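Hey team,

Filing this mostly as a record. A colleague (T.K.) asked me to run one chain through the structure pipeline before their review meeting, and I want the input and output archived in the tracker in case anyone asks later how it was produced. No errors, nothing strange. Just documentation.

Input sequence:
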Amino acid sequence: MLAHWVRRILQATVYDVAIESPLEPAPLLSQRLGNTIRFKREDQQPVFSFKLRGAYNRISQLSDAQKEQGVICASAGNHAQGVAFSGQRLGLRTLIVMPRTTPDIKVNAVRRLGGEVILHGDSFDVANRFALEKAEQEGLTYIPPYDDELVIAGQGTVAVEILKQWRTVDYVFVATGGGGLLAGVAAYLGDVAPHVRVISVESAEAACLKLALETGERKALPQVGLFADGVAVAQIGALPFDVIRLDKSDGSGPVVEPEVVTCTTDEICAAVKDVYEDSRSIVEPAGALAVAGMKKYCQQHAITGKRMVAILSGANMNFDRLRYIAERTELGENREAIYAVTIPERTGAFLEFCRSLQGKGITEFNYRFNGTPIAQVFVGIGLKGGLQERADIQAQLRVKDYQVTDLTDDEIAKLHIRHLIGGQAHLPDERLFRVEFPERPGALLNFLEKLGQTFNISLFHYRNHGAAEGRVLVGLQAADHTDAQLNEVLTAIGYPVQDVTDSVAYQLFLK
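Output structure:
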C-alpha cells in the first residue's frame, strides 16, 4: 500500500506553481534544545502555505470537461488561496466559499488571485455545506482541503524534498488539522525512509487525531478552538486517518508515531517568537505549531543529539493578532508568571511587597482600592528560571505571610481579568460566563439583543484579538431566575457559552 502512495507522490504535478522550499538551519533553537534543528519553509510558497501543493495537484489532473465547468471549495484561509492561485494559473473559474467571519485580509488575498468569493455562514461547516450544494447545482468540481488522494499526494512532495535536502534526518514534526500534510509526509517517509520518526502536533483545542487514536475511530470534537485556525478541524479526515495507521515498509510500526503532541495557545505563541528569532520571519499560529510540538517533545523525552525538522506550514498572519501573541509568548516560554496576592490595605504595603520579591522584575501590577482592610492585587513577574523559579516565588511570598494563588495557567485571568481594573461589585446574585461569538459586524449586537432586558449586565469585557471568534466575559445578575433558566437563555442565543462563576480568578478579583 505504501508503494502506491510513493508512486502517487512522485507523480504529483506541483512544480508548475510551487517552489522547492528551503530547509533552513535554526541555530538558536538548536542550541537551546541540544538537537540540530531545521525549518522546512513552506511559508515561502507563492501563497505562503503548503496548501498550494495539494490544491494544484488535484485541479491540474481534472478532465477537460471538469476544467471547463470550474471548481469550488470552502475555506477561510490557506486552502482558499491555494485553489484560487491554481485556478488562475490554469485559467479556470474558481468559487471560494468563505465564512462571513473571515478577516478582510484573507478575503482580499483570494480575490487578488482571481477567486470569486462567496461569503456564507459564520463557520467553516456552514460554508462547506453550502459549497457542496452549489457544486452539485452548477456542476462544479469540489476541491477538498485534505480528504482526497491527489491532495494528499501533492502535500507528500514536502517529504520528498526533506529527504533530498537532509538524508540523515531523524524526526519530522508536522502540524495536523484534517491530516492531509501528515498523511502525505508519513506515507512517503514510511516507505522510503522508515527510520525517520514522524510526529503529529495538534492544537490542544482541536486535537481530533489524538481523540481518534485513543478511541480507535474518527470522532468529531464537540467544540474546536480557533486560535490556530489553520488546524481548527473537528474530525480527522477519513483517508488521512487510514494512511496514518499504515505500517512502515520495514514492518516496524505505523507510519506516524502513536503519540500525538498537543500544544496550548501559550506554547504556540512562544513558537511564533522562536521562529522569528531564528529566521526573522513571522508565521501564523498553525505555521508555528510543529515547532511548539518539537520543543515540547524534546523536553518531555529528554532527547538530545538528534536531527529534527519542523515544517513551517504557513504564514498568513493577520497583523492585528501580533499584539495578542506577544502578550502570551512570555507565558508560553515560562518567562512570566501571574499571581493573585493579598496584601494589607495600608500605606507602604506595595513597597513592602516589592521588597519581598528581592529584585524580581514586575511586568504588571493591577490594583484598585475597595475600602476593605485587605487588597487583592494581580501581579506579573518576569522569570529566568522557568517553572522552578515560578514555584520558588510562590513559596517565598508565603514565607512572608502573603496569601498567593498562581494564575499563570488560568485562561480567565490571562484573557480577561488582567485587563479589568474596576474594583469589586460584591453582587451576591452575579453569574459569570465566557461567550464566543463570530467576529463580524453585528455579532455583538445580535448577542445583546437576544439576551434582551431580562438580566442586568454587571460586567462586560471584550477585546478584539484578530481571530475569527470574539471572546466575551460577561457578568449577569440572575435576580429571581434560576441557573437553569439563565443557561437556557444563553444557550438559545446559539453561541458557545461556558459558566465560569467558580473561576478562581473571578472569585479573587471580581466578587
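Quick notes for T.K.: The first strand starts at residue 23 and ends at 25. The chain is about 40% helix and 20% strand.
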